[in-house]
Amino acid sequence: MTSFAEKLDRLVRRHAELRDRLAGPDGGAEFAKLSKELSDLSPIVESVDALRGAEQEREDLKALLDDPEMKEMAEADLRSLEERIPALEHKIKIMLLPKDEADERNAILEVRAGTGGEEAALFAETLFRMYQRYAALHNWKFELLDVSETGLGGFKEASASITGRNVFERMKFESGVHRVQRVPETEASGRIHTSAATVAVLPEAEEVDIHIDEKDLRIDVFRSSGPGGQSVNTTDSAVRLTHLPTGLVVIQQDEKSQHKNKARALKVLRARLYERERQMKDAARAASRKSQVGSGDRSERIRTYNFPQGRVTDHRINVTLYKIDKVVNGEALDELIEALLSEDQAARLAEVE
Q: Which of 72, 237, 270, 313 could form an S-S bond across to 320 if both were Cys, CB 3.0 to 4.6 Å?
């Protein structure tokens, strides 16, 4: 079995080899690929250099322990190094973990009201706005794809495309059932109601990732309608796509153009098919994992928002924040997301150690 030190040596050699190759004549078709590999390796090699420097410094300090005049200073510096070296090793191990190839992708967000009637629809709208504000805080582009409203301002379902840096990496653990406990505005007696909404975050797929054959699609067009069935369009611009091999159905009716609605529906369908493929590939690996932060299963209850107590609890990592307003405003959502990312890293690290 390759030791950790040998693995690091191999990475340093590969980094030097790539640097030499790219310093020569243009690498042609391989140039972009090699440049990306060098770019990915550079921060790891920097950390390896820092680790090797610290290890060498430790050896030099040990040699000073026999010198009565230098011993006290050497012991103090050694204590500091003995803390820094494991931290550097841990950092490198995290950097070496296999990356989810979808992490750098944009995402399709889908929020649907679950059990709880009108209150569930109002909660779905709250969640959707939370993610919209969170996207704005990260300077991501949040493009509305489709919204089905209720008469009281809630959302039966809503979807959006989120574009930016590492969107899927930060959003992927939001998939699942979100539960709310609060007194509905419509409740005269002031009783606390529990309702739920389902969130799905799908990595956006390109045509090169997922090819959809036209013969596998049934395309229906119809007149789009607003809340309560009122017509908002006088032409058949709404589009329903049915993917016959899988039975997946996507409806888009927000645009006035049938062509635009079809393009958006294809974008969502492609993302769902890509995610389906990812889930199938990950199933065996996930089954063998001792610990999982979240499977992304839409039936899994992941978080509770308790408004009377002002708290948000993430059940996967047993973290509770008593700042529900800041979470719902998108401001404190990163505290939960960072904790989820750290837990996922720790779980994956445990598998390879």
A: 313
Q: Could you tell me which of 45, 51, 1, 10 has the C-alpha nearest to residue 352?
A: 1
Non-local CB neighbours of 98 within 8 Å, separated by 6+ positions: 348
Query: Tokens standing for 17?
Result: 């080899």
What tokens appear for 111 in the block?
């929020």
Whole-angstrom distance, CA of residue 162 vs CA of residue 145: 10
Choose among 159, 127, 120: nearest CA to 254. Answer: 159
CB 128 within 8 A of CB 201: no
Query: pLDDT of 312-323, one tens digit each?
Result: 999 999 999 999
pLDDT in tens, 156-191: 999 999 999 889 999 999 999 999 999 887 676 778
- What share of the chain in percent tops pLDDT 70? 88
Q: Write the pLDDT tens digit of every residue in 279-321.
A: 777 665 555 444 445 544 556 789 999 999 999 999 999 999 9
Calpha distance 146→225 (Å, rounded): 12
SS3 99: coil
CA dist., res. 318 & res. 85, Å (int):
30
Q: In whole angstroms, what is the distance from residue 155 CA to residue 153 CA?
A: 7
**The pair of three-digit structure tokens given for residue 38, joined into one six-digit string:** 């060098």
Task: Say how far apart CA 272 and CA 203 lie, in whole Å.
Answer: 8
pTM of the predicted structure, to 2 decimals: 0.70
Rounded Cα distance, 213 and 290, in Å: 39
* pLDDT score, position 287: 53
